[in-house]
Amino acid sequence: MFFNRFWESKKLFLMLTLAIYGFFAWEYARQNFNGNLSGFLHIGTKTIHCPEAWYPGLYLREDEGFDGEFTYYLALDPFLKKELYRCTLADGYRYQRILLPWITAAVGMGHREWYPGIILFMNMIALISGTYFLILLCDHYGTPRWASLFFPVSIGPLVVFSRCTNELLCASLVLAALYFYLTKRDFLIMGVFLSLAVLAKEVALASVAGITLYEIAVRKNRRILHWMLLPGLSFSIWQIYLFRIFGKFSLHQTNLSQEFAVYYPFQGLIEKLTDLCANLDVQGLAAQLKIYILVEPILVVSIFISIALLLHSFKNFKNPIPWVAFFYLILLHVGQSVPPNGNDVYGFGRHSIELFGCILLLYIIDKKKIYLLPLWINSAMTCIKYYTLIKS
Q1: Half-sphere exposure of residue 119, counting CA atoms within 13 Å on the CB side?
Q2: Could you read off the pLDDT of 207-243 as tens digits, one per residue?
Q3: In angstroms, rounded to a whole number, what is the distance separating the alpha carbons of residues 1 and 27?
C-alpha cells in the first residue's frame, strides 16, 4: 500500500526529474569541464571574441561555441546599455529571447561569475515545473502520471539543459498556460503565462495563435481576443524597443551570414535523414557496437512520425492542441528548412521540444496509444544520448 501511494505521489516524479538532471549536471561538469559550471554555456572563442564579457575562471572553448553563450552575453547587457550586443552575432534576433537573461541579471545582481549557475538552476526549475503541470494535466484527464516523465526524459530538454538555452523556460511557461486554459478556463492567468513565454522565445506565439483561432472558430468565443492582447502587447512592446535600438525588426536573423532558403516542406529534415543514411557505416556500427551513432537518424525518424500523427490529429478540430501544433509545424517548416550540415542532434533536439510536447499532450487528452510510439523512441534515444554525454 505504501509503494502504491508513493508511486502515485506527485513528489516521486518531481524527485525523479531532479535526480536525473542533478546527477547529469554533476557528472557532465566533472567529466567535461573539471566541475566548472560555466562549461555548460559552451562559450567559444573561434567565432566570437568578447574578452570584456569574460571573467577569471570562465570556461572557454576553442571552437564556435553554442547558443547558451548568448544567454550569458545578453544577461550582461539585458537592456542594451553597454553595447555588448555585438557579442551576440544576430543582435535583435537573439535579444527577442530576453526573459532568461532578465532573470539571470536580476538574481545575479552584477556578479557575472554567478550567471552560469543561475542559468542552470533556472533550467532545472523549468524542468521540474513543466513536469509538475503535466502531472496536473494527467490527473485532470485521468491519464497515468508516469506519462509526465516523457517531458524530462526527452532529447529536447536534455539538449537544452546541457547547452543552457532558453527553450525549457518557454516550454514550462506554455505548459502552465495550457493547464490553466484547459482545466480552469482561466484566461487571465493563461494570458500572463503566455506573455512571459513569448519573451522567453518567440515560438510561443504558435500557442497564442492556435488557442485564439480555436476559441474563435470552434467555441465562437471572440472575447479571447481581449486576453490574447496580453502576450501580443508584451511581445510588441519589446519588439518596438529593439526596433528603436537596431532600426529593424528582429523576427529574422540580422547579422548571420547563413541564408535560410525554403524550397519544400521540412527540407532540412528530409536532407538530414538522407545525409545520415548515405553516410551510415552499418558494418562498422555492427563491429564496434556504437549504437549511439543511430541517435540522430532515429531521432529524425521519430520527428517524421510525430509530424504524421499531428497532421492526422487535425481531423479532431474540437481539441485545441492540433490547432497549436499546426502553427508549431509552420515554424518547424521554416526553422528546419536549412542545409543538413547546419543541424545536428542538438539543433533538431532543441526544435523538437514543442513537437513532442504536442504529441504528449494529445496522448494525455485522448489516451490513444499510437501517440506513445514517437515518445518511446524519443525517450530511448535520450537515454543513449544521456549516457554518451556524461561519458564523453
Answers
A1: 37
A2: 999 999 999 988 888 888 888 899 999 999 999 998 8
A3: 35
Grid cell in block for residue 200: 522567453
Q: Note the pTM of the prediction, 2 decimals.
A: 0.89
Neighbours of 357 (CB within 10 A): 25
Q: Where are the alpha helices (DSSP H) in 180-266?
A: 187-200, 205-217, 224-246
> 155-163 vs 345-366: helix axis angle to the nearest 10?
140
DSSP secondary-structure letter at 84? G
Q: For the stretch 40-72, what's the b/e string if a residue is b when 16 or more beta carbons lie within 10 angstroms of its beta carbon?
A: bbbbbeeebeeeebeeeebbbbeeebbbbbbbb
The whole-number pLDDT of residue 94 equals 84
User: pLDDT tier at 85 (50, 70, 90 boundaries)?
Assistant: confident
d(CA 245, CA 131): 38
* Dist. CA 35–CA 96, nearest whole Å: 31
Q: First-to-last CA distance in the chain?
A: 42
Amino acid at 59: Y
